[in-house]
Amino acid sequence: MNRTQGEELQGTTYVVEVAQVGGGSDAPQLARELGARAVRRARLFYLQGLDRAQVEALAGEVLADAVSERWRVAAAEAPPELEPGWTYLDVTLHPGVTDAEAETLLAVLGARGLAGVRAATGRRYYVAGLDAARLAERA
Predict the structure, then answer these.
(1) DSSP assignment of 14-49, as one string?
(2) Is 129 exposed, middle or buried (0-12, 13-18, 19+ CB in 10 A)?
């Protein structure tokens, strides 16, 4: 996770999940490629060094488009709630790989006077019609 200071931060890591209303225009194509019934995608933003209220404000003001996207905040260790028949796969960058999206987010936070924050990004794929083991094989 990128961070703005050299010290280790304590506290909860939150994840903001941002998804397009309707799952995205390429969701049907992705489902066909995987052999699944349906696919939904979401962008993930992992944040440490902020309280939940700050994370929720950031989600609504900066991370999501109020018209075309929906968002939710959870503790990073909490698995997402799944509908029956759905599974999910989170994809993040390997340690040491530049996370340009997180670096941009840290710059925005710095401009808002929020220092000492760690950030990382990823993607979450919700898939219907494949079990978790089969999804991992295809990923």
Answers:
(1) EEEEEEETTS-TTHHHHHHHHT-SEEEEEEEEEEES
(2) middle
**CB atoms closer than 10 angstroms to residue 122:** 18
By the 8 A CB rule, do 2 and 111 touch?
no
Closest by Cα among 19, 20, 23, 53 to 37: 23
pLDDT in tens, 71-108: 999 999 999 999 898 999 899 999 889 999 999 999 99
- SS3 (DSSP) at 71: strand
CA distance 45 to 54: 13
71-105 burial: b if 16+ Cβ within 10 Å, else e? bebeebeeeeeeeeebbeeeeeeeeeeebebbeeb
CB contact at 8 A, 16 and 63: yes
